[in-house]
Design goal:
Elements lengths: L1 E5 L3 H13 L3 E6 L10 E3 L5 E3 L6 E3 L2 H8 L4 E2 L5 E5 L2 E5 L3 H7 L2 H15 L4 E2 L1 H4 L5 H23 L8 H5 L3 E2 L11 E5 L3 H9 L4 E5 L3 H4 E4 L2 E4 L2 E2 L3 E4 L3 H4 L9 E11 L9 E4 L7 E4 H5 L7 E10 L8 E2 L3 H14 L5 E3 L11 H14 L1
Parallel strand pairs: 1-2, 1-16, 2-12, 7-18, 16-22
Antiparallel strand pairs: 3-4, 5-11, 6-11, 7-8, 9-10, 13-14, 14-15, 17-20, 17-21, 18-19, 19-20
The structure holds flavin-adenine dinucleotide (FAD) and uridine-5'-diphosphate (UDP).
Length: 377
């Protein structure tokens, strides 16, 4: 008995380990890149700074199962992630909170808005900008307009080439307005960075006598799906295959391409101790890039006299680009559902992960889903 897992990202690695531990089967993992860990891959750059090649990743969760599972493979550097927005040169906390409000408005106006916010939602509430925009009170309308314009509108146009209200509301709810002074980017109880990096954590996860990892193998070049039949190297395959790549690619774009956003990262190493006050600064009103990450501020790496930053430029994904983000809108969801129905005709094919499920999942959600799937195999 053998399982074939396509992709060695968080989904594939977690599933491989969970299956190897729950069954006595062999687990073969195919990864087309020359490294494991998927988009969480991190490695030292030429200056020795631990950087994330595919964008900054911070682990955060309220799922105890995911936290407990990952903690078997790593110690944690306890990061409480903070993000500042650059609004016309003034830095203010994101999610927009009462501290941001006091920076953005004169004291009397800020006080009136704060009172209204607390009356409407209660101190400590997390309110989506889309919900805040529905309020009729004049103070809250002014506030909502300010936050929409200065935090969400331009950033979202850059990120998605769409207006905030054209996307699945869940996308905007990821970054609520906070009726509190909480300046953390995430509100999850567990937050941190794997002490030796994500790649090291996933390498330990794959280190199991019944897991075999093959890098540089593109499953789409070796696998075909024809109705209910899966073929590998031209032969009918009855083994269970768990696919974590893009579904339109596996299906040869039969129903048309699924849209994705990709990112161009521009890395720069500077001969200075530090570049910016926090790990991530979002450029929410100007600049063609969305954000600047300074990696040392995320990992806690001590390396005097040098630091590496990355600017992120989102754009539509063309053939050959890395598909980073499934697009959270109704039209894309409809096309994905049609692909999924086709894929479900094949009884030994399972879909898992941000690409294969075409969902805007964080690492913890993927780990939780992979553990749940392993229980059913
Ligand atoms: P991936 O990480 O994409 O891994 C899929 C793997 O499958 C890849 O290695 C790919 O090469 C391989 N593959 C695909 N097709 C094939 C094929 N045909 N043959 C062989 N191999 C194949 N989440 C957080 O929790 N915190 C964050 O701070 C965070 N920041 C993010 C920042 C950015 C810029 C992005 C894009 C995402 C971020 N995420 C974050 C989300 C996180 O990246 C995903 O939740 C996670 O990577 C999903 O894991 P996955 O295994 O499903 O997909
Ligand atoms: N967002 C925004 N301004 C910000 C931060 C986020 O407009 O300063 C919007 C944007 O549309 C983004 C979404 O909220 O895609 C979710 O943000 P999050 O930081 O969760 O995105 P991630 O980078 O994790 O994908």
């Amino acid at each position: 008995m053998r399982y074939l897992i396509v992709g060695a990202g968080p989904a594939g690695c977690t599933l491989a380990r969970a299956v190897a531990e729950r069954t006595d089967a062999e687990v073969l993992v195919w990864e087309r890149r020359d490294h494991i860990a998927g988009n969480t891959y991190d490695a030292p750059d030429a200056a020795g700074v631990l950087t994330h090649r595919y964008g900054p990743h911070i682990f955060h969760t309220r799922e105890e199962e995911a936290q407990t599972f990952l903690s078997r493979f790593t110690e944690w550097y306890p990061l409480r992630h903070r993000v500042l927005a650059d609004v016309h040169g003034r830095l203010m906390p994101v999610p927009f909170n009462l501290v941001s409000l006091r920076l953005a408005f004169e004291p009397a106006q800020a006080e009136a808005m704060e009172r209204r916010l607390t009356e409407a939602f209660g101190y400590g509430a997390r309110v989506s900008i889309l919900r805040l925009r529905e309020r009729a009170e004049p103070e809250l309308r002014t506030l909502a307009d300010y936050v929409y314009e200065n935090v969400f509108r331009h950033y979202t146009r850059k990120q998605w080439d769409a207006e905030p209200d054209q996307l699945d509301p869940a996308a905007m709810s990821r970054v609520p307005v906070l009726v509190s002074e909480d300046c953390g980017y995430f509100q999850d109880p567990w937050q941190g960075m794997p002490a030796d990096g994500f790649t090291a954590m996933f390498a330990r996860m794959l280190d199991h006598p019944r897991i075999r990892m093959e890098l540089g193998v593109d499953a789409c070049a070796r696998m075909t799906l024809d109705g209910a039949n899966l073929r590998v190297d031209g032969e009918r395959c009855d083994e269970t295959v768990i696919y974590t790549g893009a579904l339109d690619e596996l299906m040869r774009n039969r129903l048309g391409p699924l849209p994705y956003r990709t990112l161009d990262f521009v890395f720069e190493t500077l001969n200075q101790d530090e570049y910016q006050p926090v790990g991530v600064v979002n450029y929410t009103v100007d600049q063609p890039f969305t954000r600047i990450t300074e990696f040392k501020k995320l990992t806690g790496q001590k390396l005097p006299g040098v630091t590496t930053i990355a600017r992120e430029y989102p754009r539509a994904c063309a053939p050959g680009d890395t598909p980073y983000y499934p697009i959270p809108d109704a039209q894309s969801a409809g096309r994905y559902a049609a692909y999924r129905r086709e894929a479900e005709r094949c009884p030994n094919l399972r879909l898992l992960g941000r690409l294969a499920e075409y969902r805007y999942y964080n690492i913890d959600a993927i780990v939780t889903r992979a553990l749940a799937l392993a229980r059913t195999l």
